[in-house]
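Quick one: structure for this chain?
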Amino acid sequence: MTIKDSIAMDGPQTLAGPRSWRIVAFIVAWLVSVPTAVGVVFGLLWGSAAAYPAMIAALGAVAIAISVRLMKRAQVLTAQRERTIRIERAAATASKALLKREITDPVGSSLAALVDGVDVFNVFLETNTDEEADEHGNKQTVRDVLYATGHDGTPGRWELTGWRISSAAREALDAGGSFVTRIGSLDKMTNTFYRAARIGTEVLVPITAEGDWVGSVGFTSEDATRPWDDEEIQLLHFAAEMIGAYWERRDTKGRLEELLAAKDEFIASVSHEVRTPLTAVLGFAHELDENMLKFNESERSDLIGLIAEQSQEVANIVDDLLTSARTEAGTIVIAPQVVSVRHVIGEVLSSHSGRVDFSMATDTDLETWADPGRVRQVLRNLLTNADRHGGNIVKIHAIGGAEWIKLEVRDNGTGVPSHLRQHVFEPYARAHDGTSKPASVGLGLSVARKLAQMMDGDLELNREDGWTVFTLTLRPYVVEPAQQAVAVV
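Got it. Here's what it folds into:
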């Protein structure tokens, strides 16, 4: 139900309604029955001469009483209508504040506008933060931002320290309902804090964005016994919906801007990464074509090797692009089979130009049930990432277990900041400070994790004792499964 619907239901009734006909019938009954009864009584006691004056006097008294009653009722209805108009105006002003680009604090201006609609001390906003549960099981920590009741259009704003919301409030808000706090129900320390802030009672409702409870908005009052009526709570729900929608639009806009920036960077990266090896390939090929006899056999072999190496670089980039596109389209093919860990790592290292130390936790070979081509692609991308962004020492270590096989690619570089570690697996992600070698297309780690997960494994990033560690987890081969066809995901 919207606030407009609520106002329409709770507002003054029209004369055409059933309630108005009952009021008219009640007035007519009093105007007829009371004077008639008085006239009958006076006629029986003092005769017909006294009956008529008594009836007229009674009629006048009833008319005056009804007039006074109607005037009071009209005053109540007028006050209700004025309050409804104030609430509607406050809601409209709050909505406009969230739409105007020139306002520096749209949410604050929107909330400050709400106090014009109701008689409250302050309006406040709480945002949820993601912290670990305390000993009482409270999982939501909130941070307050209060807005003063100034009516000059500029919200008076100040931030309070974070605090843990009560379990009762958390349950009510998480379920989408409202919650009322009164100082009489608070512990001594919190009660003292509320009194110092001149808050006797408060009501708050949840703000949701993209289906998640992300914060709350509420009113405060100095009167600890003040009741909160449906219109006030409905106004808060309306404000919460507007703020949630505003945050969703803001976040969507931010993601679109990031996507556009990533697209431009992606195009530039692809152009650079493909052009560089292609330039070498074309240059060496032209040189061999035009001056074949100038080079001896050893020099020709070196040039052909460089052409092959640079061509493989282009092929790897194209492979990652195709894998990413096919993954998104759901058409990538995974062909699992028994794979020797020692053999597949040896194949990757044989085509890798950098120095890599390889070790296994056991003398016997490990076998995994996976797609050998995709395992090579994952390891190749991890080694390429280590070359570009890692330190001068790179190691591969294989560990076997009853339920998993782990292939660790380690380097002694500075690593990725902890708050960015999960983002390195996003397409086109950039999580380094620019001191490393030129950036790649930005798909390698994203493609590597997707392939690992499609082989019933995973790829994780951790920091251990000064080492950056990418861990590829795969299923071990124990007993060959029944005829397992090619899996199309």
